[in-house]
Write a structure and sequence with these properties.
The chain has one domain. Helix content is 31%, strand content 29%. Helix 1 crosses helix 2. The chain starts with a strand and ends with a strand.
Length: 157
């Protein structure tokens, strides 16, 4: 599933397993303001996610410079949506790719507006109150916790 995260510094898009969705929604229950906070909170439930996204952004930043996004454009053109690398939204090409479904869909987390937009989601309904599996590093489930989105968060649709 594709996940796109918007904060005051811009937007980042990545593809991760569908079962990361509850961890990302639960992270919103703690009102993250930045991508780093969002990934840190989500990482408490889904441990490898933060490292995966941050490593992907390091690669993106190494191969792309302001005004020269040839590397990411080529990667997006030659790979299927589910195989695309982590990337920053820097222009219309990356913006379009950030909204393109991968596997079960695409969900946008706008941390500034406190809004979760289900552009396409065939995996599981996002709810204001739910449960999230807390995973160990090996992927096994350690326990299940409840979360509740604060009232200022909006779910669309």
């Amino acid at each position: 599933m594709r996940f796109t995260v918007v904060d005051s510094d811009g937007a980042v898009s990545f593809v991760a397993p569908c079962d990361a969705l509850p961890a990302l929604v639960a992270a919103c229950s703690r009102n993250p303001r930045t991508l780093r906070q969002f990934l840190t909170f989500a990482g408490e439930y889904y441990p490898w996610l933060r490292d995966y996204v941050e490593a992907g952004l390091a690669v993106f930043d190494e191969h792309n410079t302001p005004g020269n996004y040839r590397q990411i454009h080529e990667a997006l053109a030659r790979t299927s949506p589910r195989e695309q690398p982590v990337f920053r939204v820097v222009d219309e090409v990356t913006r379009e790719a950030s909204l393109r479904p991968a596997r079960a869909g695409v969900v946008l987390f706008n941390l500034n507006a406190r809004r979760i937009v289900q552009i396409q989601n065939t995996y599981a309904e996002i709810r204001r109150v739910g449960r999230v599996r807390v995973r160990a590093e090996d992927g096994s489930v350690r326990r299940v916790l409840r979360y509740q989105l604060p009232v200022e968060w909006t779910l669309v649709p």
